[in-house]
């Protein structure tokens, strides 16, 4: 048996042990084979039966022979706290680490880091013969907008902010706002951290105000956690704040958008992926018209301007005038 074959056998048998229930009537070899197939193993019912026979000599697992089909389970009082992780768990942890790392406090990351390392080791050790081992090479996430490299956030500042958020303590920060020449010294009451595309934002109130604001993490030049307890509004929920359109950067008020569409491709795209739950596209004498309830935001403006000559804003009038002004200025830039 080659080293890779032996490793695959051990991994498969370890997975079998993790799948076994703690009591009768147990799980049949056919059910185990199907579960292993679902996890990406190429295995037959007969192979599982041989695995169970071998494992029963080493582990306290028993076969329920009172009736067919026979079920396997852990013996009474046996410890079934199996160390290690399955291939499916390793895959999930690998993807979670990539996405969630900026949002998880360092203290928490340190506690789960061994699991992340074990996940990588599991996947790296099974590059052939196991279907899920290379799943991360078969799936990818591509942002719809122009991809940008994440701005640099100082690790120490990120750790300080995460700890203050975790322990609900006031932060003293030096913050460089986008439109100001000089940085400001602020006392912040942290409410949450949000990842939007490449940028991580701290949601917090700045003394003496109570309403939540957004602070881009890369613009925090200094941060120190204080011993003062942060004051969080009783009715504040991060998800409600996001649902209000906070990270779409605008008034957040709902508007009825009416847009004429001059492209069949745009019509199809919006039919397949609506911009609102309350959206309809109908035909009139001049073509297709989109009507949708959306949040009034910079994001909706960028989206409309990206279509340029393929759309015409019909309502609301203020948004139509703004789009006309911006497109007119753009046309002047390109005039020859």
UniProtKB/TrEMBL annotation:
InterPro entries: CBASS_pafABC_assoc_protein, WCX_dom, WH_DNA-bd_sf, WYL_dom. Residues 157-224 form the WYL domain. Residues 255-328 form the WCX domain. Pfam families: WCX, WYL. PANTHER family: PROTEIN PAFC (PTHR34580:SF1), PTHR34580. This is WYL domain-containing protein. It comes from Aliidiomarina iranensis.
């Amino acid at each position: 048996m080659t080293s890779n074959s032996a490793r695959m056998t051990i991994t498969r048998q370890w997975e079998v042990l993790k799948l076994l229930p703690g009591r009768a009537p147990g799980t049949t070899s056919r059910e185990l084979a199907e579960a292993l197939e679902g996890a990406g193993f190429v295995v037959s019912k007969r192979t599982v039966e041989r695995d169970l026979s071998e494992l029963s000599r080493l582990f306290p697992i028993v076969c329920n022979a009172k009736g067919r089909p026979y079920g396997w389970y852990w013996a009474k009082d046996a410890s079934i706290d199996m160390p290690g992780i399955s291939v499916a768990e390793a895959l999930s942890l690998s993807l979670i680490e990539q996405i969630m790392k900026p949002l998880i406090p360092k203290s928490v990351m340190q506690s789960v880091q061994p699991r992340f390392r074990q996940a990588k080791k599991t996947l790296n050790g099974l590059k052939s013969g196991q279907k899920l081992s290379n799943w991360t090479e078969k799936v990818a996430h591509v942002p719809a907008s122009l991809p940008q490299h994440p701005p640099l956030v100082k690790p120490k500042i990120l750790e300080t902010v995460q700890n203050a958020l975790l322990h609900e303590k006031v932060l003293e920060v030096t913050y460089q706002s986008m439109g100001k020449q000089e940085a400001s010294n602020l006392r912040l009451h942290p409410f949450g951290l949000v990842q939007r595309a490449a940028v991580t934002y701290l949601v917090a109130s700045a003394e003496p105000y109570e309403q939540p604001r957004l602070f881009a993490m890369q613009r925090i030049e200094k941060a120190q956690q204080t011993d003062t307890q942060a004051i969080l509004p009783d009715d504040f929920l991060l998800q409600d704040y996001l649902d209000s359109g906070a990270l779409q950067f605008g008034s957040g008020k709902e508007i009825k958008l009416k847009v004429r569409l001059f492209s069949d491709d745009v019509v199809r795209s919006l039919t397949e992926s609506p911009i609102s739950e309350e959206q309809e596209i109908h035909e009139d004498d001049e073509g297709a018209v989109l009507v949708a309830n959306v949040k009034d935001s910079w994001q909706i403006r960028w989206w409309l301007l990206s279509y340029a000559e393929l759309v015409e804003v019909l309502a609301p009038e203020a948004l139509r005038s703004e789009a006309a002004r911006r497109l007119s200025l753009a046309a002047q830039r390109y005039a020859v």
